[in-house]
Structures are given as C-alpha cells and as structure tokens.
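Team,

Forwarding the record for the chain on the shared tracking sheet. I've put the sequence and predicted structure together so nobody has to dig through attachments.
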Amino acid sequence: MNALNNTDRQTIIEMVLYILNKTEGLDYYRLFKTIYFAERSFMVKYGMRMTKETYSALPYGPVPQLLYDAIRGFETDRELTDMLWSVIDAGDNDAYYYLVAKRPADLNYLPKCATDELDNAIDQYSTKPFGLLKQQTHGRGQVYAIDMHPEEGITPHEGYSSRRKFFIVLGIDNKGMVYGGVVFNSKVNTHMPELVQIYQMPIRYEQYPFLTHRSYVDCASLKRIRSTALAIKGEYLGVITQEDLELIINTVASCPLIPKAELIQFGLSQL
C-alpha cells in the first residue's frame, strides 16, 4: 500500500470535499464509486492517477483503500483519518453512511483536468442505484497486478513461490468469493501445446499505460483468485477497452480447453 505524505493526503481530502460540495452530501458507497470512475477515466486519458491512493477489490467492487479505511474507522493512516474527519461530518443513527462537507474544497490541490473528470463522474454515477453501480464496478475488464501461486494456475520461476502477473477480471462466482480471469504473457511460449499457443491473443500495448511492450492474453485457461486476495494484495492498474474485453471473452468462451462448467461458474457461457 502506498505511503502518503501530507500533500498526498490533502489531495485526497480536497477530492472528497469537491464531490461532497457538488452533490450537497453523498453516501460513502457512491463517494467511493464516483472517485473510482473519475480515477479510471483520468488514467485512460493521461496515463497517470489523480492521487496516490491504492485501489482494492472488495465484494461490491473496487474502493480507494486508504479513504475507505479512514471513513470506516480503521487507522491504517491515522493522519489521513484525522484530517478527513476534521472537514466532513456523518449523519446520525441510521444515516451514519451519509457524508457532508464542512468547508469548500481547496482547488489549489485539484487541477482543472482533475475537476473535469470528477464532474463527469459526479454527473454519471453519484445518483445511480446501488445495484447498477455494483454491476458496473464489480470487476469485469479490470486489470490488477498480483502475485499468483501454483494453486492459482501459475508456474513460478525456479526458486520462487509466486509470480507477478497482470490479471484481467472476467467474472465472479455466484457467492462473490472467487474471481475468474485471464493473465497477460509477455510472449508466447513455443514449448506449449499448439492448441494452447493458438489461444494466446495479441493485444495492442500502446493503448494501455500499464503495458510497456507487445503482450498476449492467455485465453486458453481461466485462472481463479479469491476476492479477499485481490482486495488485499491486488494493485489496480486500469481497465481493458470494451472492444478488447468482448474479444477476450468470446475467445475464452470458444476455447475447447476450458470446461463449460467453468464458463458457467463465472457467467461467461452466454456471452
């Protein structure tokens, strides 16, 4: 998890205040989602994030972890928690989840390119129903860097117990506990069976800030990662374009090496 300095913390605080002032108050679930969508759009456009937050995948989708901990009362970053609660208030009793700003945002910490993305996210997501937000942020197409192990279908290099991989979320089981997805490979292993090689899908790395060279998506097998592991250890990198996502899903669904039961488990059999 990223260590923050006071400028980093203040930027997060001002982002929260900006959203709460614009919306005249908001529940923290929609606050998290508004920030998430703004960050995602900003990264796609500019190849960088607005803050140094760490995004974690929780059962209802990704959240800004340090802000989540501060609002929920976990003292992961005590300074951030104290700074935050000095400038916001929460509702009483059953409205404890509803947050309001105690002062305007200081725009010296938020450049116009950031407030533009925040405005777009506020307009599109701050009033959406919980179920629709959950569906839209539940992970499909999101990419995480995570250390994967043999039990997750990855063979580490000799002498290591895990291997860092870029994992693309394609679905989640009906209990919300296990994510199914595919991983990036930097090249096609010519020692693999020919059928496996055929299902290594090349992807244009230029459109993804987290890729630095030509890469391949392994569509010959579905990997599994528990949602808790992705939440704790996964580093959110970005999202696959809709065009590439549909191509990946269709390729996975057509691969004869993947059992039908696995496709059904992760909601991919009818796509």
